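Hi Y.,

Following your request, here is the sequence exactly as I used it, all 394 residues.
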Amino acid sequence: MAVEKTIHILPTEAERATLVGRVWDPESGGPRVVAVRGDDVVDLTGTFLTVSELLESADPAGAVASADGVVRWTLAELVGASWERDSGRAHLLAPIDLQVVKACGVTFVESMVERVIEERCGGDFNRAAEVRRTVGEALGGSITSLKPGSEAARQAKEVLIAESMWSQYLEVGLGPDPEVFTKAPVLSAVGFGADIGIPTFSSWNNPEPELVLAVDSTGRVRGATLGNDVNLRDVEGRSALLLGKAKDNNASAAVGPFIRLFDASFTLEDLRTEEIVLEVQGEDGYRLEGRNNLGRISRPFEELVEATHGAHHQYPDGFVLFTGTLFAPTQDRDTPGLGFTHKEGDAVTIRSRHLGALANRTGVTEELAPWTFGLGSLFAYLRTLEPARNGVSA
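Below is the corresponding structure, written out as tokens. Let me know if you'd prefer a different format.
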């Protein structure tokens, strides 16, 4: 897959968007907080040491607009180095740092059905088509408009239970409380161009194209980006208690390309009907398209944020929240009836009109570069920047 043209990574209305992110800077040996201004990428690290600090501003978009910054790179060169995975050149990182990476599951009724199928299959993809037919017949195809926690949702749950299809996914898909889990450790998410990992212990897996909300320490949503919540269907299908093994592996969370901050031209309302488009292009010539239409999400964004943050749980450095996906890959890749699973080298692109495009390739988790730059490394790097920030010679 060739390097995409610069404009393809950006939102359709890029000239109006306030976009911030992070760049790995080989010259200083660490991550820089950046903003996109036209074709240029401006280093804002002199004003904001972390993206978390930036999002805690009273007006993040206004702070970015007024911040002094140095033009250090062009967007084209960063996109090229990132897609070529050239670690010796400046390249894009996930646009988050100190934020905890949280995720919501089963936020679309259709995706709940697929989770029930995974569980009924016991992680065996050979049974998926048969179980999907059985579940569809039991539901009668009439649950897509159900509101979780409603009387109608309770009745739909009873129908499935009566058909011996009880599942814990019914509770979070149709009940009053959403599923919220920790997707990945702080600083472990990968950004545009990086390889995403598929472990050797999984043989049934897929991408999950999702909207990711960027939330500050007080629970205010400050902007949004795109994410790939890489999913191991066979592992989670064996038992929901294996969620950590299914969701949290090296390079299993991709976020980017940038956080688009809310401002006068872009608010949370603009995302309520956002359509996120997925494309998988395999080295074997296989091509898959999918769509995640947020207009069909079963719980409003505010409910998901409130279930994550509040008197019951605080996040002093903020958090990002994967909001779930409508997409479920049922299109066959090889053998009829066995559906989709990743192969090494798949190019995965997730894009939307307001947020741009996040593109990655799949690799074998155990063979990817290990995650080594953690909080200790970040703090050591930031200490080297403090003298310059305070106007003191190093």
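Residues 375-389 form the longest helix (15 residues).

Thanks again,
Q.
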